[in-house]
Batch of 4 targets.
Target 1
Amino acid sequence: MIALELHPRIIENKDWATALFMVSFGLIVITRNLFENRFHDFIRLLFSDKYLKIYKESSHLMGGFNVLLFVTNLISLSFFIQLVFHHLGYGAKTDWVLFVQIFTFLTVFILSKFLIEKIIATTFGIEELIEEFNLQKVSFRTYIGLLLLPVTLILFYNNILSNSLIYSIIGILLVINLLTYLFSLKIYQNLIISQLFYFILYLCALEIAPYYFLYYLITKFRA
């Protein structure tokens, strides 16, 4: 008589991720339909400065266009961070609870940083400079988030993630962010020079310290 040993079949639930990816692409379609001309200029951001010249006023920062793409950007970045955590052995890529935690942390971190920036800009009297500077950063970072979305989609449904691929993607993201920073500084150099002292304080307090703090927490957690 043959003895049979049954093993439970573990099926990863990816339905929630599929739904979120569909929501992300749905938000992009909605944004394109509601803001057709603006979206057309936006997707050419890396090749033309037309978008930045037309939508440079601070009133556009909290508009529907940026809000819709901000949510898409959060979903994209949250998925990528979860994939990195999964590869490093800190969680499963199909763990929706972990995704919610990452998404919530990113949302709170970004919105809190934005609120503090508004307070400090008002205190230093550099509201116009910071709002225009932020609008430029938001535009480029949103663009990067959209480019990252199909990458995370492919990586999520295929087990092809490796250390070299992770570091390559992170390196590319950092380089693009650095270039956009330098580009923004070049555009607003005259305005920055006129308020250089306060701008340096702003950079140290809100563009360097928060990310250094995050780096410290991550390295401490890994140790």
Note: Residues 56 and 132 are 7 Å apart (CA to CA).
Target 2
Amino acid sequence: MKHIYDILIIGGGPAGYTAALYAARAGLDTLVIERMSVGGQMALTADIDNYPGFENGIDGFELGYKMQQGAVRFGAKTEYTEVKSVDFSESVKLVKTANGDFYAKAVIVATGADPRKLGVEREAQLTGKGVHYCAHCDGNFYRNKTVVVVGGGNTAAADALYLSHLAKKVYVVHRRDTLKATKIYHEPLLKAENVEFVWNSNIVELLGEERLQQIKVRDVHSGEDREIECDAVFVSIGRNPATALFKDVLDLDDGGYINADESTKTNIEGVYAVGDVRTKVLRQVVTAVGDGAVAVHYAEEYLANL
């Protein structure tokens, strides 16, 4: 006889485990399915300084573990396995995994989004040691230092503007000769005395032993190389939402994110999208945990009317 959970959560990041905490604390039979380890992208950040309640900051993996344990305290369970497919067409939702099939009355999707990588040698080795993917998460560590922002869209422009108030010098490396970002960013960036644009260029090499010390950029037209000394590179060339499982099941926006507003409701009743995987303005740990709480609020209403 198959077991049917009240709520099944796909993804064990901050949004997923906040949802698990709220659901289990409300007395709902709750399961989290996580592919690898708790914390999601947050677990890759050594120091999180902008999550309230930790005045000295906290390691991302440790914070993820604490979130999981908070949910476990009230009875939430975790299954470590990979989801292969989903079927949300019936009132009881089916989630197929490498470890078998799981059933639930409501599903919360918290699969997150992965930052796009530069794709250059030693990028993984230097991640967290000068190579970063979130300026608002890690920019504070580079006050009065020299940093590089890669990209030309709204995120890159916003990151460069944010970092210009912290860093001594900000280089913006972009493969074109003008920003793709909306005009609102152009004037303040061009006026910032500590921002320098490196147009028509790509980063081709990351230099440094234990930490990043220099980058090598190549002009896309002339092929000429230039080395720039810097303390950090912030890669702001977009994200890849983890929505391949849902592309023929849930409504996605043009960027591949799940269409869900602040209610976290998707186009299917009883299915919610939380955290970085949904369409939203700001993707941070604090906004993810907010989503998790909101989703359970609406899921409780849904379950009460079944």
Note: The longest helix spans residues 285-304.
Target 3
Amino acid sequence: MMELLIGTLVTLAVGRYIFKGYSATGVLLSGGLLLLVITALMGKAVLPASVTSTGHAATDVFEYVRFLLVDRGGGLGMLIMVLCGFAGYMSHIGANTILVKLASKPLGVIKSPYILLVAAYLVACAMSLAVSSATGLGVLLMATLFPLMVNMGISRGAAAAVCASPAAIILSPTSGDVVLAAQAANMELIDFAFKLTLPISLTAIAAMAVTHFFWQRYLDGKSGEHNAPVAPSDLVTDAPGFYAILPFTPIIGVLLFDGKLGPKLEIVTIIVICLVLTALLELARKRNGRELLDGLQVCWRSMADAFAGVVMLLVGAGVFAQGLMGLGFIANLLDLAQSFGTGGIVIMLMLVVITTLAAFTTGSGNAPFYAFVELIPHLATSLGVNPAYLVIPMLQASNLGRTISPVSGVVVACAGMGNLSPFEVVKRTSLPVAVGLLVVILATQIMVPA
């Protein structure tokens, strides 16, 4: 239990300093390095199994930082940088401006920006069927939907919360988590996904959408943050009307190049294609190669800003998460869950709480779920309960817990791209997530036989 105590104390200290206004990147990186040093002093493995050790615990601490710089910088980090560059270029050529100008007329009939917010949230949830990565979906929405929401009068905090939360509830019936959960529940994937998981997910999404409406309006009123819609008369651009579709070409590309209608392409590849097509349109419109290349500098500078503001924050969060996991924080939570032997509903609630806590502290939805799902067959047999009754709430709790974690990739990325504190985004997602989790538990009680 010493590991659990150390992890909790360091987590509280990290949260305290971030709340006091210290650099989130520096605090997370410092806290993570401290945890990794403690892990090494305790004789535990510093690196995950996927990373080759240097042979010395002391240098393994810094080897993991190198690994994350390469991994996050070249994978997820590259996605974030390219999307930020694309968004910056869309603003430079006037595509975002013409989009807002055209959208403001029909959407101006809707007086409440919070109705628009709910509509945006439901669209974002539907997008989770096409983009399986929570962070990938978040940064895609921040690059495409976020500017539109802000210009239509939705506050930056509320708009970022919408982009960070659509993957909080699992919709895709073929995601890896659902497949693994179906195996643990000893059910056919089709029956598990469509007859049990999907109805519960849709119910929770509806409840979260309503909660977003009232919660974001309340927080905006409390903070005094009122973002007036941009008046069409204030929008000046020489961009043609059809440029309004350009900010959404990455979303269209994701839907087209999914391996069914055409070749399956990675999001970065799709963004590069969209950027090249946009540049060709600009060249045809202005017929000035020098001006085109100068304009693309905006894209490259936006990518550099994204590395400093978002990717390094992700590296710090990753070091902190590995520090907790290497220390044995997750393993101790697992032992805690196994130490209780009682009724089905109590065990189900306990698994939900522990999974949510593990996802919150590590910022990962997969790690706690993959660790705890192995318990389900044993617990279900010993308690005489339906394994699906235990696994479905735990499956959703792992994703919901990630959405309120200030160190999760999706929260960090959305906060960085929105120029907000991760804790501001967490505050904005906290009540919708709590309501979603409560609905999942209640719906499981009603829809899944114990």
Note: The mean pLDDT is 81.
Target 4
Amino acid sequence: MSVTVRVPDGFHDLANVFLAVGLYDEVTVAPADTLRVTCSGPDAAQVPLDAGNLAARAAVALAGRYGISPDVHIHIAKDIPVAGGMAGGSADGAAALVACDALWSTGASQDELLAICAELGSDVPFSLIGGAALGVGRGEQLTPIEVGGTFHWVFAVADGGLSTPAVYAEFDRLTAGTRVPEPTASPALLTALRKGDTAALAGALGNDLQAAALSLRPSLADTLAVGTAAGALAALVSGSGPTTAFLAADADTAREIGDALLASGTCRGVRVAVSPAPGATVREPRG
């Protein structure tokens, strides 16, 4: 993730290479007398269930565009770490959008859905399309990226969350008085993804928000060190943190890294996943 200083609209311009991984929440929608959001699964208690929830906002936005009353029960079965810098809330917003589109048979085009996603938040458009993409502006202007192979990842889930606005504010503090270059995507990173070259990808990974996340949560450095010592080809903070990500050479090494991280006590949980993965997808009801 390449980040510049805050621009006049209050946001930061980004050049963010998004790569979807195989961790999923499941969002279910059903007709109801009023808009209602429920949640189950790990960290469900941390998920807001009011009108500010991105899934609820997605339903309201789609309903408003088509003159429909947003009377729907949205249930979120969480599996993506909450407040972990992995865009779980954005994924829920995208999932609720495509689910409500199917429920209400609006027939919205992908361009219409992407426009709503951009209104909801910077990470929501990518959560809709998945795969890999370069996001510029606030991250919502997407260009798909070709990926030529499968990459193996380990994610260490930290205790507690990190406020994304706080991390950006710390980035501004740390970079005050310095010249921050315009955000650009690394050509080496794009080439590594296209070729499916894990070793080259490891050498090209970077996150301009990592120093800010480590400043606010110094203990993350211990987690990064453990994963590196266990064989990770690269280790970095995921997004604004506090989840940390480790690139492994293969599935067996990923499991070994995960075991070492759990044994170290530097994180409260570990998830192993592969990329790329699809975005929000409608599944037919079971049974």
Note: DSSP finds ten helices and eleven strands in the chain.
